[in-house]
Recover the amino acids of this structure.
């Protein structure tokens, strides 16, 4: 990839904060070429759909990262409500919530979008959190290694008709081999060489993750914790463009 705008369009910035004014200001400063903004549990629990709509005023697609994990009826209701109130580009559930729940989420997103005459959000499923490694999986009784569990859940997600998954960059090759080129791979756990790892365990640099075949990268603290967030985004875009 040689074009920095094309590189930027693959990046969702995770704005994890309770500060609404800061989130809206930051979204406005990251430039129109950014792929989108990811808002999750911290922000939405503080500010709800009105806060999401406020941040969306900057014009970026919104990835609503609330990782629903409940019984099918409850998740369907949450997906319907979120689709109508937040109009996200993409939202997610946990694949380990099972087949019936994922199908209910898929159908709820489609029916709510149809009812409101808006574009259906991409519905994707979290496989294995990027903060977990093989030892962590053993501890919760999930059959590792992580890559095997990710592929198992990716196949299940695809069978349920969802649009893609959240996985780490380390599993991209295995998931592509199992699920093909059109299945969307959304990849957090991204750490430029100059950033701190923090609580993430299955990490990769932005350039390597794009080279591996990620559709979108989700990058939070390396951008939001930088003294100059827009500068950090530009640096990441240049690294990807050089990949
Ligand atoms: O497996 C997952 C699923 C979601 N996330 C989310 O992505 C961002 C990453 O932020 P960083 O600051 O770059 O670590 C964060 O909002 C998580 O909730 C994830 O990291 N891993």
């Amino acid at each position: 990839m040689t074009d920095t705008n094309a590189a930027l369009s693959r990046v969702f910035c995770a704005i994890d904060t309770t500060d609404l004014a800061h989130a809206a200001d930051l979204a406005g400063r990251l430039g129109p070429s950014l792929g989108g903004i990811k808002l999750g549990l911290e922000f939405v629990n503080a500010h709800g759909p009105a806060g999401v709509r406020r941040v969306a005023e900057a014009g970026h697609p919104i990835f609503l990262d609330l990782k629903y994990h409940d019984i099918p009826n409850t998740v369907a209701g949450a997906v319907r409500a979120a689709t109508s109130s937040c109009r996200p580009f993409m939202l997610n559930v946990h694949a380990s919530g099972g087949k019936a729940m994922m199908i209910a989420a898929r159908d709820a997103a489609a029916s709510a979008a149809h009812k409101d005459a808006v574009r259906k959000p991409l519905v994707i499923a979290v496989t294995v959190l990027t903060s977990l490694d093989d030892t962590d999986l053993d501890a919760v009784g999930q059959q590792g290694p992580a890559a095997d569990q990710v592929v198992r859940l990716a196949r299940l997600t695809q069978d349920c008709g969802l649009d893609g998954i959240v996985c780490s960059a380390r599993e991209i090759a295995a998931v592509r081999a199992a699920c093909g080129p059109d299945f969307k791979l959304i990849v957090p756990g991204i750490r430029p060489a100059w950033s701190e790892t923090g609580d993430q365990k299955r990490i990769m640099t932005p350039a390597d993750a794009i080279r591996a075949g990620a559709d979108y990268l989700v990058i939070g603290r390396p951008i939001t914790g930088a003294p100059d967030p827009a500068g950090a985004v530009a640096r990441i875009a240049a690294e990807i463009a050089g990949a």
In short: The pocket of LLZGTKA7 is lined by residues 14, 16, 40, 65, 126, 129-130, 166, 188-189, 198, 200, 218-221 (CB under 6 Å). The mean pLDDT is 97.
